[in-house]
Amino acid sequence: MTDSTSRLRTDALILGYGDRTVVEEVSVAIPDGKVTVVVGPNACGKSTLLKGLARLVRPRGGAVLLDGQEIHARPTKEVAKVLGLLPQNPIAPEGVVVADLVGRGRHPHQGVFTRWTAEDRVAVEEAMVLTDTYELADRAVDELSGGQRQRVWIAMALAQGTDLLLLDEPTTYLDVAHQVEMLDLLVELNARRGTTIVMVLHDLNLSARYADHLVALHAGRIVAEGTPAEVVTEEVVRSVFGLDNRVIQDPVSHTPMVVPVGRHQPRTPSVPTAPSTPADQENR
Q1: In degrees, to the nearest 5, what angle opens at C-alpha 186 toward C-alphas 233 and 79?
Q2: Which residues have CB under 8 Å from 167's CB, separation 6+?
Q3: What pLDDT does 227 receive?
Q4: Max Cα-Cα span within the chain
Q5: Three-class HEC string of 128-166
Q6: In DSSP terms, which residues pair with 69 in a beta bridge?
Q7: pLDDT digits 0-9 by tens, 15-45
Q8: Strand extents, DSSP E, the chain
Q9: Which of 183, 228, 262, 281 is 20 to 30 A off residue 234, Cα-Cα?
Q10: Sequence-ordered list of residues with C-beta below 8 angstroms from that of 30, at least 6 positions apart, any chain
């Protein structure tokens, strides 16, 4: 889908590493004020596409456009004020504490000689409260569990206060309860602030539950794009993931839910036979 009115979009975008092309002529417009989720099998180009949107990978062809201008032509700090990124495996400086790491999300809003402001403090505290990391403020990041660290990184992204937020596997290292809690938080952020969110997720059912807009990739190309009902069909899932499946309605969210068929079906439990009685034996 192409839409010249979208703030963030790509035009025949080609991305790759070395002599390998990973994303091939992808044209997509990110719907403003919506939650977009990119799905697809491993090594299909999901994370590379997200890096391209965040100007971390320079296009080999085509372009990424932010507010109608090529994103690589705009100053880094200017872009950072409106577009935030949580990469897949971020690395924290050794010994940094949670409050300091979250506070780094405010750097794009500060000049060389600008001091920490009340607005910065409020943004950091609010981000830590939202992600349930406020009590960890004085803890060293490298002492935290994987799930705690992931929530701290998301807090830093929220503290940046951007209009556009890109997240690569934000539920990594989180248990099921915290995955749902984190996705609920991001959807609430979208609803409250109108933040445009783009996520890469592996779980197709969670993607269908939380996305307004789905983009399904296979081998670096868009196979399907649209609402969850339009994208999550048995045919598309079979084409993208090579999975025999059935699509039913999620009983909670009423969104499409994929049920894998698989090669090994559960065995039908055998019904025990009641022991024979003397009367039965006489009737034989």
Answers
A1: 105
A2: 85, 86, 154, 157, 186, 197, 198, 199, 200
A3: 97
A4: 103
A5: HHHCCCHHHCCCEHHHCCHHHHHHHHHHHHHHCCCCEEE
A6: 66
A7: 999 999 999 999 999 999 999 999 999 999 9
A8: 8-17, 20-26, 29-30, 35-39, 61-66, 69-70, 83-86, 164-168, 196-200, 213-218, 221-226, 245-249, 256-260
A9: 183
A10: 6, 7, 8, 9, 36, 53, 164, 196, 198, 213
Radius of gyration of the chain (CA): 24
The region, left, alpha or beta by phi > 0 then psi within -120 to 50, assigned to residue 257 is beta
pLDDT tens, position by position, 217-259: 999 999 999 999 999 999 999 999 999 999 999 999 999 999 9
The whole-number pLDDT of residue 138 equals 95
pLDDT at 1 over 70: no
Residue 236 lies in a domain: yes
H helices of 160-210, in order, are 176-193, 204-210
d(CA 130, CA 151): 10
- In this predicted structure, the answer to whether residue 119 has a pLDDT above a threshold of 80 is yes
Structural domain total, the chain: 1
Is residue 268, in this structure, part of any structural domain at all?
A: no
Q: Is residue 1 part of a domain?
A: no
Q: Measure CA 29 to chain center.
A: 17
> Which residues have a Cβ under 8 Å from the Cβ of 53 and sit 6 or more positions away?
8, 10, 30, 64, 71, 166, 198
pTM for the model: 0.84
β 221-226/213-218 pair status: antiparallel
User: Do 29 and 6 meet the contact criterion of CB atoms below 8 Å apart?
Assistant: yes
Between CA 123 and CA 133 the distance in angstroms is 14
Whether residue 127 lies inside any domain: the answer is yes
Q: What is the pLDDT of residues 153-195, one digit of tens each?
A: 989 999 988 899 999 998 888 888 888 988 998 998 899 889 9
Indicate which CATH number applies to the domain containing 51: 3.40.50.300
